[in-house]
Amino acid sequence: QVQLVESGGGLVQPGGSLRLSCVASGFTSSLSVMSWHRQDPGKEREWVASVHNRGRALYADSVKGRFTISRDDATNTMYLQMNSLKPEDTGVYYCRHLGDWGQGTQVTVSS
Fold first, then answer.
1. Tens of pLDDT along 54-85?
2. What DSSP assignment string belongs to 50-111?
C-alpha cells in the first residue's frame, strides 16, 4: 500500500496561484500513473489531472491552460501548479495512486 500526503492548500483570492504537493512512500516498485482529484461539499469527487511515469499529462477541460501537473520520481513527489484560480476551483484536493488516496488538502478561492 502506498501512503500519500498532500500539502500546499490554503486560502487565495480569485486570480491567484497555489502549488500543491503529494509525497508518496511505502511502495516497493516504480510508481504508476498519479492523479489529482477534488471534491466540494455536496458534490461528487471529480478528476482534475493525471501524469504518467513518462511525464505525459492529461487535464480536465475545466482546468486546462490554468493548471500544470508534474512529478519528480527522484523524490517521489507529484505537484499541481494552479494559476488563475477561480471560486469554482474551491474544494478538497486529493492525490491518488491506483487504489490509494491521500487525506486531502483544502483549497479555498474567495475574495
1. 889 999 999 999 999 999 989 999 999 999 99
2. EE-TT--EEE-TTTTTTEEEEEETTTTEEEEEE-S--GGG-EEEEEEETTEE---EEEEE--
